[in-house]
Amino acid sequence: MVTASRLRKWAGILNSEGPKSPWGGGGGKGGSDDSGSNDSGNGGPRNPWAFPPEGKRPRPGGSTTLDELLKRARRGGGSGGPGGPSGGMPTLPGGKGIWALIIGGLLLAWVALTSFHTIGPEQRGVITYLGRFGGVLGPGIYPTWPAPFASVAIVNVDEIQVENFPKGEETNLMITGDQNIVDLTYQVSWNIANPEAYIFQIEDPEDTVRSVAESAMRAVVATSTLDETLGAGRDVIEVRVQQMMQDILDEYNSGVQVRGVAIKNAAPPSEVEDAFKAVTAAQQQVQTDLDNARAYAGQIVAQAQGNAAEFDKLYEQYRLAPEVTRRRMYYETMERVLEHADTTVVEAPGVTPYLPLPELRRRAAAGEQTPAQAQPQAGQQGGGK
Question: 193 and 282, same structural domain?
């Protein structure tokens, strides 16, 4: 057990000689002088800023306390000093130096901090021994050789990473298969499927995914029309781009799984937006006119088919009774022809050939007297005379 006397003995390495002032003068009892003594006169250290008296000035080339300390440090502290057998570094009772404890503690901390690795549920650890692949660690706590003999690279296999194209407010112009230009904004999502390949096969995974996505999108848009890119063909383009990206990344053995491709916006360049709107409006008008023409043609065809079916029915009746059918058709036709006529002709013996029935109806509705009503009234007036 370390006693207080032992501790004092360790501390005596700096007090093996009498106290000296770093400015060359002695600071013990009786070491004060007229020009550098303190106010109390009790033999304390003199004023370091005062000029030493003539008899106590250090001789040129003489050693100071600092020089003595440096010399002792260079020769190991001298022999027989209070710090140990040679007056150097203090030792413990067992003879072990304090430096051994410090080095041991550092080694223990180094092993503890670099030999145990915690892997989360959504993570995987790729372990390497002196740069050589050593396996993939699942969730849990694993001990390994300390660094730099072994190292563990931790990757998140459940995190879905998203890449936006383009970055910021930039334009992303592409040419379509029908020689039109479109400004396309889209998004690609991916995650890590194979940690080993992800760590060792590609140097910069994010840049690789972005380059592959841009190449695949431009290749697919170059084989699509403008209408497909702007309209209902987006779904097909997204599926084709995703499949092409996955094929290329699999050829690289990148360990990346493409989760999806989504086209956010597809529009013509801003410089030709007005002209493009005019063309779009004209195309919509053409489509509207075509729809109206088709609807009218459908009505005419339906009417013609109905007339043909009616004629077929009449023909069947005509075959059964030709005379009756002919007469009925004649009556129906004359009824339609004379429905709005003002003249009625009746061919029968003893009947006036002309009978203005519509005129009589109009006069009756207006309250006027007809010629037949006016003749009896005139006879009554003549008889009274």
Answer: no
Task: Please tell me the pTM assigned to this model.
Answer: 0.49
Residues 183 and 252 placed together within one structural domain of the fold: yes
CA dihedral 140, 145, 149, 153 (to 10 degrees): 0
pLDDT at 29: 42
Question: In this structure, is residue 179 part of a structural domain?
Answer: yes
Q: Give the chain's length.
A: 385
pLDDT at 371: 54
What's the rounded mean pLDDT across residues 310-327?
86
CATH for 191: 3.30.479.30
Alpha helix positions (H), the chain: 4-11, 65-74, 98-115, 195-200, 205-221, 226-230, 234-252, 273-320, 322-337, 357-366, 371-384
Residue 39 has a pLDDT of 45
Number of domains in the chain: 3
